[in-house]
Specification:
By secondary structure, the chain is an all-alpha fold. It has 2 domains: about 55 residues, no CATH class; about 30 residues, no CATH class. It is about 70% helix and about 0% strand. It is built from 5 helices and no strands. Helix 1 packs parallel to helix 3. The model has no long low-confidence stretch (mean pLDDT about 85).
Length: about 100
Amino acid sequence: MSKPTYYKQIIHTLESLYKAHPTYNMGRHISTALDNDYPDIWGVSDKELLTSLKKYEASLEMDVSHPDEEDLDKIIKDGMNLGRIFSNDAEEEEEY
């Protein structure tokens, strides 16, 4: 069996990205993968595109998911009330 072409590997990588991140469209994947290294994509070879997509895919796999907007608001509010939280903890320790 012959080695898949870069074109077929690109398609396979895009399918893998779609399965892992179904809310992201193809343009977002390609644009983000090429953003830093290739501002003008007309001259990008299939090999370069595949390499960029693989690097992008790896960076997405390492990325930690971020909390929802509601969770962020709660974290911010809790952070603003740290003094009260710590003083309550200190009072509870004194009771023992």
